[in-house]
Amino acid sequence: MMYDYLIVGAGLFGAVFAHEAKKHGKSCLVVEKRNHIAGNIYCKNVDGIHVHQYGAHIFHTSDRKIWDYINQFSEFNNYINSPVAIYKDELYNLPFNMNTFSKMWNIQTPAQAKAKIAEQIADLGITEPKNLEEQALSLVGTDVYEKLIKGYTEKQWGRSCRELPSFIIRRLPLRFTYDNNYFNSRYQGIPVEGYTAIVEKMLSGADIRLNTDYFAHKEELSALAHKTVFTGMLDEYFGFCYGSLEYRSVRFEEERLECDNYQGNAVVNYTDREVPYTRIIEHKHFTFGTQPFTIISREYSSEWKPGIEPYYPINDAKNSALAAKYQELAAKAERVIFGGRLGNYKYYDMDQVIAAALDCADAELS
Ligand code: FDA
Fold it and tell me: Locate the UDP-galactopyranose mutase C-terminal domain: which residues (predicted)?
């Protein structure tokens, strides 16, 4: 059979495209190299706890159209992301807000917090920040930087903040209200049935081949469809002809614990350098689980090298220039559409990837 579309990658981009194509009466073959669908939003159900295997995923958007779109596939709960940070033996609310400042300086009013931060910034006398450390210090002062930013950022990048460029942190939002809601988005929540069920519904009606690496069967698979939607790595598609695009990676260490509540919150950041992981996720709190056991994941930020899972594109000058060269090739490729975080070499939140896939489907199918 000749399909209308061969979709490489059963992640959110590929699934939204497949769903839209099906609505237009088109046929799709989806190939996925992993042994499961849903890409990085995959959740496995462990005795009733949805474990976010590739990192915590909280859906949030301010776009009503995207919120309505995703709600077709699942009901969402009222989870609000309110992470906390542990620095040595001190605990602070995130994002940086009046709860954080009140705990840090034993103050109560926004005016007191603003005065404290302004005083610390003035004492430093930084006029032109030369690196990330100076940039962060000039935005938030010494205490917030030392306790909540420095160690965490150094673990994330594997380098000292003095060696990191200042552009990584352009702004550091400070909130002068007692509001621990991490996101400013209008809509937020976790799908009650889990993300995998959403992708399963999106893909219904498409033929799916798991454990199938497109590159191992490129000619044969491409010959099965009129057009290819490619959501794998952009540079790999072109045989790394200009060299490899770089990423930061994350290693997840999962553990089942025979206690009902390990840390009292879904997300706890560890902001001192000495603790080797950046965060611990306790999955059951995303869905207010009441199981007698719990599952946690420790996240270790790591260097990426070819062969390990790529997570965050690096938007420095070198990688941006390289990506632009590959994007020129992609624009010229015939009968191939490039999409998603790997195909576009771009960090997308889930709502952004849905919007991009809908735009792409609209341009292609209407
Ligand atoms: P995705 O990577 O999911 O799918 C691509 C698929 O293609 C993969 O399944 C891959 O195996 C497959 N593939 C690649 N090459 C192939 C080949 N050669 N042959 C066959 N298959 C191939 N967003 C958000 O809104 N809220 C959040 O809280 C988070 N949290 C978060 C945490 C972490 C650690 C990360 C890294 C990212 C997030 N995100 C997020 C972002 C979210 O993960 C992202 O928007 C989507 O998963 C992107 O979906 P894609 O389909 O683009 O890629």
Answer: 147-347
